[in-house]
Fold this sequence. Notes:
Radius of gyration: 18 Å
Order of helices and strands: EEHHHHHEHEHHEHEEE
Strand order of the largest sheet: 4-3-2-5-6-7
Mean pLDDT: 94
Largest sheet: 6 strands, parallel
Number of helices: 9
Oligomer: single chain
Number of domains: 2
CATH superfamily of the largest domain: HAD superfamily/HAD-like
Distance between the termini: 32 Å
CATH topology of the largest domain: Rossmann fold
Amino acid sequence: MILNWNDIDTVLLDMDGTLLDRHFDDHFWMEHVPRIYAEKYRISPESAKVELHRLYRSQEKTLNWTDLDYWSSRLGLDIPLLKRDVDHLISVHPFVIEFLLFLRRNGKAIHLVTNAHGKTLELKMRKTRLGHYFTGIISAHDLGLPKEEEAFWGKLRERIHYDPARTLLGEDSETNLMTAAAYGIRYLVFVSRSSSVLPPVSSRDFISIHYFNELIPAEGSPEVSLPRCVPPGQTPSHPSG
């Protein structure tokens, strides 16, 4: 596939696993929260993981999946406070800043579009200092719909102006790319290296990249050649954000 940046006005970017290393979220939800939960309720760490995995899955593809207030209430833990215990693990993927600078130099509208809860956004933007690169930052909680629903992308157009035919979306979720495709967003890119501690897993259905430098063309050219990848993708089994 040839990607010509002259055909793109707007870039929508997911946060966790896409711009930021998902290792933080994986460790937080799969290791840190179960350990604290086990200590509080005096159960084994293994039992805590089984119980929490069941609870996480029960809210998948809903706004509760990333709602820190919901999980604080449901688990009886101060989730925002616990995040600060391990916030040193929050990090930006390689080449993200270079990509954002490329987009700014070329006059693209850049919007961070995430399912993450507002408290997560505040923590991660403070830690990474990425906020000033974006034209706008939109949480699904502001719109009342998760990105897993096709209607989200129409609701998003009530908040920001974008032409789906001239928009690129970068995501580490195939489900979200599928709903965006159904809505009509034309340029869809799957980020296969969502975590620095896991091997990359490419998409069968979407153009896959490891890092965003693969979307930056050579000096003086608006075009990038991108191969289509075929191995199956993966989705996380815990909340993100």
